[in-house]
Amino acid sequence: KLIVLRTSSSLAIIIVNWNGYQYSKSCLLSLRDLKYQNYEIILVDNGSADKSGDRLKEEFPEVRLISLKTNTGFTGGNNAGIEYALKAKKDLIMLLNNDTVVTPDFADILVKRLESNEKIGAVQPKIMFNKERSIIWNGGTKFSKIWFTTKTIGLGQKDNGQHDLVKDVPWITGCCFLVRSSVIKEVGTLDNHYFAYYEDVDWSFRIKRAGYKLIYEPSALIFHEVGKANENMESFGEGNLSPFSHYVNMRNHIFVVRKHAKGIAWATSFLYQFYKLFGYSLYFLFRGRFKKLKASIRGFYHGVTFQV
């Protein structure tokens, strides 16, 4: 009797590096312990000035390195990896932040959940803080249809199993986003208008609009350093987040509203955007953070006027 062994679906794991040698190295080291059999790591270097892409390729010859000449953002870097993976006919594609550390079985668990139902378009794991591994960073997501605001469930909570149920979610974080290649062919890649911030929300909404479910799978576990990309930006003397981060945060939130809000939600969500700008402006004025104030106002203006 002939026994046919089922081969696992081919998986591309895309990691974008931008002057982040140490974090990318830690991520790649953890991936060496992955139990999943049929995968390829695509390391996209986003125009790093420190030659970290070449250094990582030398230390991890198993990865496929794609070197970009300039920083094309989270969207451009991941899209370069996605395009390679689609041409290579990978069945599944995972976006994975370079400042994460994974557990050996997380990919097996996510793939099993994704392939358990053809209507599931994408899945995400439970994500914990790396320095405090008992503290949750992302235990699922919420979304307000009235204000068009997104929220992470469980942020900062000690993990006592309170977010251990598999559930449908309204959006998936780009920190770890496993999706079918067939779904990407249907809905398109990440929207390069975003550069960074809210591109995962936009992609999630497009996948749901195509009729697919998004699932949070808590038994798959990874750890996140959180916000390390901002350490690579110049210090502006105005707190941890750069003015550019506030600019794209304000602009891209409005992009999401313009692309996806309908009916009364369009009006209420724009009302919230005015409230958000007013609140930020007062805070930045009070703290004397004038570069961030200017960046937020520019972000609002460009969010309203730029083509999306």
How would you describe what is shown here?
This protein has 308 residues and is an alpha/beta fold. The protein has nine helices and twelve strands. Strands 1, 2, 3, 4, 5, 6, 7, 10, 11 and 12 form a ten-stranded mixed beta sheet that branches. Strand 6 (120-129) and strand 7 form a beta hairpin.
Count of β-strands: 12
Shape: globular
- The helix/strand class is alpha/beta
Count of helix runs: 9
Order of helices and strands: EHEHEHEEHEEEEEEHHEHHH
Helix content: 25-40%
Described by its quaternary structure, the protein is single chain
The overall pLDDT average reads 94
Major β-sheet, in short? 10 strands, mixed
- C-alpha-based Rg, rounded: 19 Å
Beta-strand content estimate: 15-25%
How many angstroms does the end-to-end distance come to?
58 Å
Question: Can you tell me the residue ranges where pLDDT is under 50 for at least 5 consecutive residues?
Answer: 1-5, 229-236
